[in-house]
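Reading a protein record of the kind used here takes only a little practice. To see the layout at work, look at the sequence and tokens printed below.
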Amino acid sequence: MRVRHCLLLIPMLLLTACALGEGPSPTPPPPLTVGPPPTLTFSGDCVVSRELADWLQYSTYYVTRFTELLTQAGSKRAGEMYEDVVMMSRMRDDFGGIATPDCAEPAQRLIVVTMTRAIESFQAYVNGESSSLDNTVAEALGQFDQVNVIQKDLNTRLEAQLREQQTGQ
């Protein structure tokens, strides 16, 4: 009789242990919300080599880092992208606040618009409002390729200005 009670008790203990081991389901993160793009700051003159050089340095850094983050995040599942999208938004906001000289205005606008579109797409995907990222990463990379062409042209302009300043003195 005792053996029977023990045999009946063992499955109940195992089921109870399994139920306790599962625990409550984790609380999902709140919906991802990011602010609107920043107001762009256009000031400076590309004739001033320092202003152009500073903008080129910042823009190259931010485009490179954003592209890396975008590519890495694009290969993750929606639930794993939350922090990446928050970081993308911070990068866009930081870069959008950088003073942009006159000749770099089109590139600045293209960079911020590209970042914003990517962020919006990733945000919708993370929040379950979109079932896929579609071509978001490829489109952003294509836009950043256009930015790279503009950056190279501006860099060539900067190098010419610096040469002229050295020979003119």
User: Anything to note?
Assistant: DSSP finds five helices and no strands in the chain. The mean pLDDT is 88.
